[in-house]
Amino acid sequence: MPLPICYLNGDFQPLASARVSPLDRAFLFGDAVYEVIPVYGGRPFRLRQHLDRLNRSLTEIRMTAPRTHPEWEAICLALIERNGGGDQYLYIQVSRGAATDRNHAWPESLAPTLFAYTSSLEPVARILLEQGVAAVTTADTRWARRDIKSTALLANVLLKKLAVDAGAYETIMLENGFLTEGSSTTVHVVSGASIHTPANSHAILPGTTREVVIEIAAQLRIACTHGPVSEAELRGADEIWLAFSTRGILPVTRLDGAPVAGGRPGPLFARLHAEFLSTIAGLAGTPAL
Ligand SMILES: Cc1ncc(COP(=O)(O)O)c(C=O)c1O
After folding, report:
1. Ligand 1 centroid to 38 CA: how many Å?
2. Lining residues, ligand 1, CB within 6 Å
3. Catalytic site residues?
4. What is the pLDDT along the chain (289 residues), one digit of tens a residue?
5. Between 20 and 30 A from 84 (CA), which of 15, 21, 252, 288?
């Protein structure tokens, strides 16, 4: 559920009456980048990593960062506070701004549109953790710069709908016989005692939760490789996990209608997820950046 106060171009104001121009390039072209940041106990999780990725996306689309990290931190904390603190998720969007007319090539003088709002973050339903979720696979139909977190998400939108229409939770994508990622998740595959996940490249988003999985695996001394994951490895996996900011880590227990290994969340998931929960439980009151 969206919370009532948003941030738009320097002002905190009611989300219900916030307005941007229909000539904004985010509306006309999807010419904008964004971040989604989980907030636990009033404290944004991995804010620095999200802001680093925001700036990376901005650089890749030839925009300069409109705010410093401390400025964003102040905006985020004020927005979280004005919306009552606790567990939320925070959405930040920077668009190239509104020009006087529609033209693919942008004029250099545009003022970016800065928008942020928060939603309540409900706890992950226990049934998802205990039984896992279903996923379907399909070809990756997106563009060649999936590392940019762009609001131009039409392919992802259609891919997610494919899962929902099939009664599944996520669509996992394959390209030339190899795993890329989910429509809004990174994907981790367990074979034996080790975790495998595709390396960061232009083919996938550099996931912040993916980094958390990698860090926790290192703490727990679980081997974790970053490299090509074949379709055969995905289909023969002992465990499959999805990782993403709003839900953390979820086990996939059905893939294209077939059970993943025994069809139950696996033992490595249980270990990693317990550590993930204790990481986020300790956040309240710690510095955000
Ligand atoms: C395409 C895609 N991949 C991966 C992710 C996971 O990234 P993060 O863990 O930073 O939320 C997302 C998040 O929305 C996404 O949209």
Report:
1. 12
2. 36, 156, 181, 184-186, 205, 207-210, 243-245
3. 149
4. 999 999 999 999 999 999 999 999 999 999 999 999 999 999 999 999 999 999 999 999 999 999 999 999 999 999 999 999 999 999 999 999 999 999 999 999 899 999 999 999 999 999 999 999 999 999 999 999 999 999 999 999 999 999 999 999 999 999 999 999 999 999 999 999 999 999 999 999 999 999 999 999 999 999 999 999 999 999 999 999 999 999 999 999 999 999 999 999 999 999 999 999 999 998 888 999 9
5. 21
Which residues of 150-219 form beta strands (DSSP E)?
170-175, 178-182, 186-191, 194-197
Distance from first CA to last CA of the chain, Å, rounded?
26
Q: What is the pTM of this model?
A: 0.98
| Residue-range domains of the chain with CATH | 2-120 (3.30.470.10), 126-281 (3.20.10.10)
Ligand 1 centroid to residue 242 C-alpha, Å: 10
Measured in Å, residue 106 CA sits from the centre of ligand 1 at 27
Cβ distance 99 to 135 under 8 Å? no
Are 95 and 85 in contact by the 8 Å Cβ rule? The answer is: no
Residues β-bridged to residue 79? none
